[in-house]
Design goal:
Helices cover 73% and strands 0% of the residues. It is mainly alpha-helical. The termini are far apart.
Length: 96
Amino acid sequence: MELLRALISLVLFSCGIYFLFDGFSPELDWKALALAAFVFVLAYFFWPSRKRGQREDGNPWLDALELIVELPVEIFLWVFRLFARLFKDGDAGVDL
């Protein structure tokens, strides 16, 4: 079951990469970019993450793929937390 989830996640991640490139060429296509973001999130949730306790083995290939698949969502969460911290601790008067 774990291998099937990893395969589904990799297919979704590949589709997300395609939609990401399709969204930026030749014109900016917001629908393709939104679909890419949605597919990246789906790939993130389908992936059997070792970090979230869904996989026990220490396969280095799956660990490397985990880093790649979870990277887009982790970057988004990092940026969101950074902005939330800025508005929370700053003098802007805005609290998230």
